[in-house]
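User: I'm putting together notes for a lab meeting next week and I want to include a structural view of one of the chains we've been expressing. I don't have a solved structure, so I'd like a prediction I can at least talk through. The sequence is below, exactly as it appears in our construct file.
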Amino acid sequence: MRGVQGAADRAVQHARAWLLETEPGSRVHDVQLDPRFQHRGVDLLWELPSGEVRGIEVKGDRQATRRRYFFELISNLEKDTPGCFLYSGADLMLYVFLTQGELHALPLPRVREWFLPRAKEYALKHAFTQTGAIRYTTVGAVVPVRDVAEGVPGVITVKLKRAAPEKSGDKPGVQPGTPDAEGATPAAASEPQAPEAPEARSPRRTGT
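Assistant: Thanks for the context. Below is the predicted structure for the 208-residue chain, given as structure tokens.
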């Protein structure tokens, strides 16, 4: 799980830096461990100089060649709990492609409104997460970056000043809980068919 945690942490660091740079004088509050916001799919609160506060969801993706988003639709298939893409109350989803060194700012309500009528056009991928003795399945839609950029106004793509390097222990394809939009890769030694997906720092609404 160290690789998963490390990727999520780096994504949050990039997101925080971009938010502060975009709005000088703003403040960013980390609420990932606050249960009041976990259940709303909000990782950061972005307090603007005007006093407005926006909710931010952060996703970190380590796939080197992926040009697709993974939109989580079901967080726990066994307990039929909805995925964060559907229930998140965030204003922005900051989707960080760590290897490519890119941050994509997605206006989440607009993206969701655009996606739902087209949901059947996109393939679904399953991921398997092992937490202690509990194993559950996550389901998400694989959506090309270009489709979202062309269909949703307000999407921003930013080249990061420095791509977050992979740590020696971060080996793509061997971490649990990571579905892959491009194809199946091992998620753990005992789960050779589990795909890989973007990481959030802490699990939400899995029903576990």
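A couple of points you could mention at the meeting. The two ends are 17 Å apart (CA to CA). Confidence is low (pLDDT under 50) at residues 163-196.

User: Perfect, that's what I needed.
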